[in-house]
Amino acid sequence: MNNKKRMRVESSDEDDALITVAQHLFRVAQQHLAEPHIEVEMRLCRVDGVPPQRASETFRILHQGSSRHKVRVGVAAEQFERMRADITAAAEERRDDATAAPSGARAPLVEHTTTEDVTVGSARYSYRVVGGTDAASAPQRVPQALLAKRRLAVADVRLFHRPYDVRLSISVEEPSPTAALPPADPPKGYTRHKARTSITFPAQHMRYDLTRVRAGRDETYEVELEGVFDDIRAELTEQWVADALQGLVRLVSPATPTSADR
């Protein structure tokens, strides 16, 4: 069967391009489905250092090692706030629909968390930050997880008619073999403070993570969509990739980016 007919993508001028990109990204992910603890995530970014757009070219797929492009993860602060509001509103609407639906419907979930991650080599020490909401109380770090992350594949999609691009990452993230939890006192390493809103759509096997990240004096606003699968081999399909890709693209204004944006 022709995949372009089988896959559902909302009608727009970008239909064929999104389907082609989704098919390619699915093939990238499919090569690694046998790995345990696999993570599939897409995030908004800016791809720089790409040769000029060719006539009628709407996108370009780039792989690490085969291109000298550079990637800056994140979006502008004002766009971040708009995107968070849009996704939260969509979750509230679907939650109302789930409430009215027959028993068993899985409603979207909105969560807010504050964490501190310390990376040392391939290990990530993760702490949940609680308290510290007023001057009288200091924030407390609660050990949450000690993980080892290994990246399997990366594909970057330059979207020529959008102010942001998309990065697909396939990774393995598994508990560290040395300890179940990080020590009470964080080790010295690359430290990132994260204030995150996570919006999960269980029926679609998707979670949006919108995170304000502070590392030293740098602050970024990251927008990511991650697969939340019960059975990744059955639920990670070309259609899921197409829906996830379109979900991110829909967040982005189609207006031509300014020089400051790019």
Essential attributes:
262 residues, eight-stranded antiparallel beta barrel, mRNA Triphosphatase Cet1, Chain A, 39% strand, alpha+beta, 5 helices
Characterization of the model:
Its main location: nucleus. GO terms for molecular function: mRNA 5'-triphosphate monophosphatase activity; polynucleotide 5'-phosphatase activity. It comes from Strigomonas culicis. Its EC number is 3.6.1.74. The chain is an alpha+beta fold. The protein has one domain: mRNA Triphosphatase Cet1, Chain A (Alpha-Beta Barrel), CATH 3.20.100.10. It has 5 helices and 10 strands. An 8-stranded antiparallel beta barrel has the order 1-7-6-5-4-8-9-10. A hairpin with a 2-residue loop joins strand 9 (206-215) and strand 10. The protein is globular and about 60 Å long.
Structural class: alpha+beta
Estimated share of beta-strand residues: 35-45%
Gyration radius (Cα, Å) is 19 Å
Output the CATH homologous superfamily.
Answer: mRNA triphosphatase Cet1-like
Name the strands of the widest sheet in spatial order.
Answer: 1-7-6-5-4-8-9-10
Number of DSSP strand runs: 10
Unreliable spans are 1-6, 255-261
Provide the CATH topology.
mRNA Triphosphatase Cet1, Chain A
Outline, from the CA principal axes?
globular
Report the mean per-residue pLDDT as an integer.
86
Q: CA-to-CA gap between the ends?
A: 39 Å
Major beta sheet, specifics? 8 strands, antiparallel, barrel
How many domains, in number, for the residues?
Answer: 1
Instruction: Provide the helix percentage.
Output: 10-25%
Query: SSE string, helix = H, strand = E?
Result: HHEEEHEEEEEEEHH
Mind telling me which CATH architecture this is? Answer: Alpha-Beta Barrel
Query: Given the structure, what is the number of helices?
Result: 5
